[in-house]
Amino acid sequence: MTQTSVRGFDFHCHLDLYPDPAAMVASCARDRIVTLAVTTTPRAWPQNRKWAAGNAFVLTAVGLHPEVVWERHGEVGLLEEYMKDNTLVGEIGLDGSPQHKDSWDKQVEVFGRALATAQRLGGRVVSIHSRRAANEVVKCLGERITADRVLPILHWFSGSIGAARKAAQLGCYFSINRRTLEHDAGLALVRSLPADRMLTETDGPFTAIGSRKSAPADVVETMTELADARGVSTAEMTQMLTANAAHVLEFAGLKVPADTPGR
Ligand code: MN
Predict the structure, then answer these.
(1) Potential cystine with 11: which of 70, 87, 175, 212 (Cβ 3.0-4.6 Å)?
(2) Residue 2 lies in a domain
């Protein structure tokens, strides 16, 4: 393996929801963390793309978050339009929490359309929200996509080990943040995953380290915690996560920034 200058990968971060998004984008290059900047609405994507322009460490994804589908479902056409120009998609998915029950049918419709579009276009990597909806998300994936055309990443997955196994059979990857490693069920889940399907994330700014909001560089610590959880060395875990990340980016037609010297 060639020497890489990348220190880690944050496969799910809302850079545009921090108080100073441009500073967060700059921090990704400074800290050498490759960051998948997800968006919650298609309308937010062009500005995200501008912030990330010229920064090889920040990769922007276009999404339509299930929690805003109740008021934003009309933007699904715009999502599909922007997906033509972007091989990274997210955040999309389903949320089965009681407060989002009324929008469930719309959520299923929007998620289904986004997946069908990703399948039609091919070579798409999709970051997926599945809170309280793991089984339904896995069902939709089984119906709408094939692993040769779409690479799904289940972000902050909190479903059962059985659901995770089914998802892995469909080609899913799992982006893991520190919150999952704080409780026994999360540790059991993480230990059950295939090693070649694990990725790191922060879901910043929606997670915190003490009183401070998480930042992409926090994935460095997550790699060590994942190594501990799985009983392997940090070096071995880092190598695995780097290989997994490179595979995911390659699927989307992208390269790890180490391959672009001078940026
Ligand atoms: Mn998120």
Answers:
(1) 175
(2) no
